[in-house]
Write a structure and sequence with these properties.
The structure holds two protein chains of two kinds. Chain A contains 28 helices and three strands. Chain A is mainly alpha-helical. The longest helix of chain B is centred in the middle third of the chain and has 32 residues. In chain B, 75% of the residues lie in helices and 3% in strands. Chain B is mainly alpha-helical. Chain B has 22 helices and two strands. Classes of the chains: A mainly alpha, B mainly alpha. Chains A and B meet through strand 2, helix 5, helix 6, helix 8 and helix 27 of A and helix 13, helix 15, helix 18, helix 19 and helix 21 of B.
Chain lengths: 657, 523
Amino acid sequence: MESHVLDTSLRWIVLVPLLGAALNGLLLRRMPRRAAGLLACAAVGAAFLLSVAAVVRLAGLEPHHRLLADSLGTWLDVAGVRVELGFAMDQLSAVMALVVTGVGFLIHVYSLGYMAHDPGYNRFFTYLNLFIFAMMMLVLGENLVMLFVGWEGVGLCSYLLISFWFNEEANAAAGKKAFIVNRIGDFGFLLGMFVLGAALLPHLGGGEGVFSFRTIAAHTHELVPWATAIGLLLFLGAAGKSAQIPLYVWLPDAMAGPTPVSALIHAATMVTAGVYMIARMNMVYVLSPAAMTVVAVVGAVTALFAATIALTQNDIKKVLAYSTVSQLGYMMLACGVGAFAAGIFHVMTHAFFKALLFLGAGSVIHAMGGEQDLRLMGGLRRKLPVTWPTFLIGTVALAGVFPFAGFFSKDEILWKAFSEGNPGLWLVGFLGAGLTAFYMMRLVVLTFFGDNRASEEVRHHVHESPATMTAPLAILAALSVVGGWLGWPHFLGGANRFEQWLAPVFAAGAGGHGASAHDAVTHAAASTEWLLAAASLSLALLGLYAGYRAYAGRATLAGKLHAFAGGRPHRVLLNKYYVDEGYEASLVRPGYALSDRVLFRAVDTGLIDGLLVNGSALLVSITSALLRLFQNGKLRFYAYVFALGAAAFVLYLALTT
Amino acid sequence: MAFITDHILTWVAFAPALGAVLVLAAGRTPGTARRLALGAALVDFVLSLHLLRYFETGNGADQFVEHAPWLAGGKIAYSLGLDGVSLWLVLLTTFLGPLVILSAWRAIAERVREAMAFLLLLQTAMIGTFLARDMLLFYVFWEAMLIPMYFLIGIWGGERRVYAAVKFFLFTMVGSVFMLVAILWCYQQAGSMALADFLQLELSRGQQSWLFAAFALAFAIKVPLFPFHTWLPDAHVEAPTAGSVILAGILLKMGTYGLLRFAIPLFPEAALALGPWLAWLAVIGIVYGALVAMVQQDVKKLVAYSSVSHLGFVVLGLFSLTTTGAAGGVVQMLAHGLSTGALFLLVGIIYERRHTRMIAEFGGLAHAMPRFAAVFLFVTLASIGLPGLCGFTGEFLILFGTFGSGLLPHARLLTALAATGVVLGAIYMLWMYQRVFLGKLGERNRGLPDLSPREWAVLLPILVMIVALGVHPAPLLERLEPSLERILAPVAALRQTESTYGLAAGMPADRPAAAVAALKGDR
């Protein structure tokens, strides 16, 4: 068994945000708003500082022995099924912990301003703290069950925060939809966990936690026959949480929540949990080329598919939401081709620039008095001196322009898709990248260029957001510039420190993509990598330019695009390929009709209760009513019946003998 | 105190009955009757804590045993015992007892004295059922439960209370009659009514099948297992809140307890052969109950059908015939008792305010009653198995225990079908929650008062236990496991040669190694 260092600070990273939520939600409900917000920020800030300290300690250890562990005892231990309430931090958890608490802290601060006038202020911060707690449970859990506890916990917080403004029925419905679609994924997660556990359990010695990641890593050979099943079932869970085809439908609706929530939960952190889980389970995935292929293909297709929808959406948050679905597809693609480190790299850079873009969008919405329709915006460049440049930085970072963060991670993914996967996967990702640049520029132009198309009154009130909101924008913008430099690739003369840092986690599995990557770069490969990088950079710039040309000025080009082929393609994209309608017609309504008309009315009320239960009761009462006729108390009737019976008996005897 | 501690089981079982006598004798005003009843239930709870305190962990046998000859020269005895399974079910009963009485404080305003006496008598019968180790004694307690419940529904129930009470009574009676015949037949063979002697019987496979069927029918009706469930929605809808809480919280567990305590260990071969049928009915019930719950218009009926679904999980866990699955089954019994008990309490609270339970009458209640809405959501989450709360612990163990069971054919398919209940549960509960609590607040629901201190006092202990069972089930399982192993030992003995848990059964031993080698070569 690997050595590890006990570190009781891990529990506090998890529990301090819970404490914040408990104080705000239960004990100090009547606290002044300002204090509640600051308390919540302090709780996440403390978790961030504790994480930094833990990561520093972790970095001080030998690369292959980097593991901090902590335990709060045994959750359960019955018939050999042992599950620890344990936490562990390795290089992968370290990255996630820093991103979640760091970006989480910035978004808490931003929310101080954004939610300042909301009546549900304290409740909002309670949920936000609760989310950080669950998310830290997810990334620091030392076994699959703990991960699942966090997984469901973040799902709950997502539900609570999407339907935060529950006065609107639509928001409540969106929250419920998110929870239920995620539960479909959890169905797969649970079964995947069971296959894994049932396969391992007979082979374990005493004291080994059956779902512990260390146990799994130590017993991978027992899992070989089951790896495909485990991988595919767990991927169903990941597809729910990380919004992949066919379970992505909840994420766009999740934009019903307050914008900081969209930034924190539905862009930067929670939705990447599926990617994290697959990276965490890399030792099982590498055993199954089939499962890996499914992950890669679904990721690539989702990346392109969602990007096409983002081209046409008119709600500023919906564009960003489909963009998130698309970017999560890239992360899945990376995992599917075995480039787990590249996937996690994109998780990190995406957290920076997508949080930036959502918070920027929030600032825009704030300025526009709640308006989210791009068709009613425009010309905000001069009115929003901080939001505008930071939003632009986020855009070019997402589009993948050198040297912004997105360039490095996306390029790494595309390169790995090409070299470890196949050119087809690369091409799909490559096309998606072009569309990304285009739709983001469209968004920028419609929001910040041209004339403002809002009503006179709205236009009059446009103002830049307060410092609590703009300061996080500035910090995230800085991270969106430099964040990618951690993974400066070899072919550009860097050392890809990010990949090196994660290498021990992903080398433990089998093939050791991570470990072998930096010495495997040959000259021929390097020149191909150069070529592909140049191609994707050119495509990004072309996409940005095209987006600008199409929507800036009099926008005649845009009109032509919309009218292309009779406007049908545009209409299909605008209606998101009618997927929601398809689900409604094929699953939701038939499911309800079956339950109501067939099961409840026909089977339950009609057959079982009506025919069988009350029917037999009726039979009994009819029989007894008939029998009662004979018991009428008239002596002469009895004598008559008696005589008749005796005669019949005698007749019977006479006939049979 | 020795005269109490030496006969602690008798005291725990009969303290409520003494309380009932006291209530009838001295409860002249409704207030006195209520306070006396609450006092008796609290005393019983304190007495039952003695069991927890002195229960010997690691010992799977009956503890605190009491034995006295009763009839037929001692062949029939007053015999009580408590193992890990009975321990938790008795504690659940004594824990819910005072809360149920407190919940009926205002809701039952007529003939308070009788109602309180019936509630206490019912508690004695239920505890007795969990403790009896003599089959006739068990049967007496089992039937004795019917009478107070019949009156609770029939007198203090809703509009169709008489129909519901009779239906409840007849359903249970029909099943019990077959069980009585089976018990008498075994008595002939064993020469005594002691459970221990019944366990020694050497029965042929055919005899076991008939006896198992007779027992299982009685228990399946009580659970209730699909398709014997139609008495439950009626009974729940018509019963007063206190009755519903007891019904869901404890009475339904009599069926699953009976299966575990008697049907499985007494007739192990039949349990192996016929158990799969029950497992399939259980899984059908999980899915069917959830789908039917989804389309209900009445919140109480929805919760009633959700019980069919949840109890299906319990039966599935028991007939996995693995310790893990059975442990999950017992945990789920407790979890369901807490969460569904709480749901009925909550439905009762809203009914007292609005005198309706129709979902369409509500909407936006979270605006008017934010705390009530928060508690309701919390219990909803426990009910749909959110990790960290009680429902998850049970479901997880049941499904995991069943998945790898080597004693249940098609175990993996059954688990997969059952696991859809995880999705369906979220659908019907959250949809109901949305329609009742979210959205805009209608005129009719404006100004409804939020939870009162008395209502908090009823709910808070349950909420605490819901968390405790979710976060820290280890102490419970520790005391449970040895008893379950003992109960399942006759079944395990039949399959000594094969492994009872895992997936690798039947796979060539060299295949994994070869596959690893092949994979490594690939890369």
